[in-house]
Amino acid sequence: MIKVRNLSKFYGEKLAIDRLNFELKEGEIVGLLGLNGAGKTTTIRILTGYLMATDGLCELNGLNTFEHPLDVKKKIGYLPETPPLYPELTVIEYLTFAARIKQISEEDLSSELNRVLGLTDLNQVKEKVIETLSLGFRKRVGIAQAILGNPEIIIMDEPISGLDPKQIVEIRNLIHGLKEKHTILLSSHILPEVYKTCNRFLFLHKGRLVYQCDRQELEREMENLSGLEVTLSGKSRSETEIYLNGIASKSGATLKFVGEDSVGSTFLVNTSSERKFKEELYSGISSSGILPEFIRKQDVTLEQIFMNKV
Ligand code: ATP
């Protein structure tokens, strides 16, 4: 559906994206992941026809996006990182305005507005002025604007950044609902947030596509990289470290001291068998005088993936 070949963009002397190659197939939901400055927004602006590339090719269903930017814009719904909302308008006024810009006919206008208000669950706030809405609701208004006219492809730049955990779940559910009918590309700099949403992942680092994989492969990768954060109390840091080193050597784990506070000493444990490590830890702990305070799985970060792939 979208084909990108050797796509590069210079801003003056600055190379923002460097010979990118990837594809999006119909019905996929793809995460474009990268740290700040990786080139995600630049890539998205080029795909959506808002920015010219310096070099390379970008096609939408065989249509060259640089030669046919207006046709491309009709087929893509775009949610920029900061949606261009008019804060003084009500939700319905803004969406009516956006629908007219997208040339949705007066005949279809009201049914289309009802459709997107329903999909984004905005009916309850449709008469409210946008500036009075929470960030989560404003993102939904941006998504409603993006899906007006039922475009084949939806591209969202950081749709969940800045949201609280409850809002993240709501927007994630909304995106899940959209994937039945649309091909979706969304960008993010936070791996755990998009991990559950997408079925394929593109990893962008300093303008280069350093890794791409499907969900199963990423799951394996994350399993290998994820660690356990272990907080123990009852003994000094050095005694705890000696004890934990003994456990680690028996279970093939490696250990890193993280810090010490009023609760206890915290270590990061990397192991290929969490179960074995936990069994060893618990089997000897009652006679050691050491108390387990917390054992929690650590989220894998983008930085860990890049360190492994670059
Ligand atoms: P963020 O999440 O911080 O927005 P990003 O992954 O979206 O990051 P881009 O905004 O695409 O990254 O930026 C890629 C690189 O290009 C960065 O080094 C950035 O400083 C640079 N850049 C972006 N826009 C411009 C511009 N208009 N002029 C010059 N350099 C730019």
TrEMBL record:
Pfam families: ABC_tran. InterPro entries: AAA+_ATPase, ABC_transporter-like_ATP-bd, P-loop_NTPase. Residues 2-231 form the ABC transporter domain. Keywords: ATP-binding, Nucleotide-binding, Transport. SUPFAM superfamilies: P-loop containing nucleoside triphosphate hydrolases (SSF52540). One of its GO terms (molecular function) is ATP hydrolysis activity. SMART domains: AAA (SM00382). Belongs to the ABC transporter superfamily. This is ABC transporter ATP-binding protein. The lineage of its organism: Bacteria, Pseudomonadati, Spirochaetota, Spirochaetia, Leptospirales.
